[in-house]
Amino acid sequence: MKYIRNFSAHTDYEAEMSKIPTPSVSYCRKENECHFMPSNVIMFKVGDLNGNTNQTVTVYYSNIKGAHNPHITDEIPIIEGNRWYVYSIPSGKSLIKFKGIKEITDTIISAKINNIYNLFLTNIHGNVSFINCIFDDEMTSMWQMLADCLSPQILGINNWDVSKITNMNGVFEYDRSLQNLDLTNWNVENVTRMDSMFHECNSLQNLVGLSNWNVGKVTWMDMMFNSCYTLQNLDLNNWNVSSVTRMSWMFCSCIKLQTLTLNGWDMTNTTNTDNMFRGCTSLNTIYMRGCNQTTIDKIKAQLETDGILNNVTIITE
């Protein structure tokens, strides 16, 4: 077994685990099969290289409070396909970015995530699972944290403690292959920005867990669901949007969206709804039970401006 810095590669995961200087871990392909995932470890499976050798995977990491410290780069040579690779981030360091290659089929991350740089997953095509990830205690921003990820699935994030987060701008932006997302357990009570949060999640078909979110502190929701082409139903029931001033382009180009639930919305303080429903050519029903007349009038006016008012039934009772 050849060791390269903090990195090991092997064919038989179980047989080789004793050679890796990390806590014991069971072999796993899926999140629910991992029982003893060590901290600050990235495991990834490389498929058939098809002769495309001499590639590298890059890990960027830093000190937990690394505002004034340059990040550190580690290059992992991919010497063979069809095997798992295990990379152990040095003790006391936090993950900034994991840059993969297209041949990676599965990635499992158990890491401390840094407040300064956040986490970026670049060129990840296979499924991604997070196991026992922790945030820096001072972490408040998730700006574009999981943006540009090419994975069809991002597992293990539903139970993240996001209660201290204030900025969710672009968290999933440009995740064009992502198909399903469950955020039921996210506590977003301190978030002030959700603009572009799901922008251009073009393949997203199921987005659940947003109903009854406490969004009372959010002020910006511009482009939040813009270009979610495959969403057919969206339940934003009982959102307290009384602090939101900007909703421009919020549902723009959701071309398959048919049903929108906005029960309990109060848009009295919303001043910008430009192009909010532009291109929502399939929209036929909006539920607005418990909404005041000002909110209903603003929605109707924007539907008319965007040219689809005659196609939509607004249900208020």
From TrEMBL:
InterPro entries: DUF285, Liste_lipo_26, LRR_dom_sf. SUPFAM superfamilies: L domain-like. Pfam families: DUF285. This is BspA family leucine-rich repeat surface protein.
